[in-house]
């Protein structure tokens, strides 16, 4: 049993190390062009770096727009679903009240009929 636990710990620690390494690579890649130093670049490199950043910015804007649309659609679906559930509950409550009212009326009628009837003893 201990061997399985030790293997799981080893696998988990390797996964953590791998994730950390991937995050570091991503961070390095992101910071590579975060600061564009014009003095160290030729005109073509500078323009290329600016175009790359502009492309990344456009992509980020499109990603955010898509996310906003999904969130709006999710909220709209949530609102519609809740309205539908509320309407169903109102209808169920109305039916329940009508049934209770009908049952009460029937009981009342039955008790009046029994009181009037000479055979009831």
Structure explained in plain terms:
The protein is mostly helical. The chain is elongated. The longest helix is centred in the middle third of the chain and has 74 residues, at 43-116. The chain has a domain at 36-116. 87% of the residues lie in helices and 0% in strands.
Strand elements, count: 0
Major sheet size, sense and barrel closure: none
Helix content: over 70%
Stretches with pLDDT under 50, minimum 5 residues: none
User: Average pLDDT, to the nearest integer?
Assistant: 82
How large is the radius of gyration? Answer: 36 Å
Order of helical and strand elements? HH
Characteristics:
121 residues, 87% helix, 2 helices, mainly alpha
List the helices and strands and how they pair.
Blueprint: H1 2-32, H2 43-116
Question: TL;DR of this structure?
Answer:
The chain has 121 residues and is an all-alpha fold.
